[in-house]
Amino acid sequence: MPTRVPPFEEGPLTLRSYERGDLDRLSELLTDPVTMGPVGGPLRRDEVLGMLERYLAEDDPRYLVILAAFDGGEYVASGRLFVSDVEPGTPEIGYLVRSAYWGRGYGTHVARALIRVARERVGAARIVARTRIDNVASARVLEKAGMQRETTRVAPTGIELVFACGETADFRGGT
User: Fold this and answer.
1) Among 24, 106, 122, 126, which residue's beta carbon has the most beta carbons within 10 A?
2) Is the pTM of this model over 0.85?
């Protein structure tokens, strides 16, 4: 079940948990072909609604924290902390920045915020992230957020780089 977190700041961003009223914001992000190109392509609005419902579901143990990120009231990015399938038992971070805001450092701020939440709210000693091998910008974001490249793996969607920070620890999920 996703942990609700009170709004907090990371750099220029204010981050908060998603709410039911965020469907239009999340749709704007996830239906954009430019934003979603590096991660498999845009979703349909009904798929976004299903995703938001899963994010808000109290019985889905995969999602630990889901955050909306704003700069001066403008929705710029999304971040999630979830139980990894790359390294079972370890929390993984993922983020998307609206394409109109690429190149402004927002991805790094969201990644740092997720790492902080993983450590402070979830109690994680180790956090992982992954990106497609051809997504150089995302790899750089993860490095700037303090993660190190650990391995390359073949995934159903292509070749991925796996990044991590922290020590190996047994993480069971929850708060």
Assistant:
1) 106
2) yes
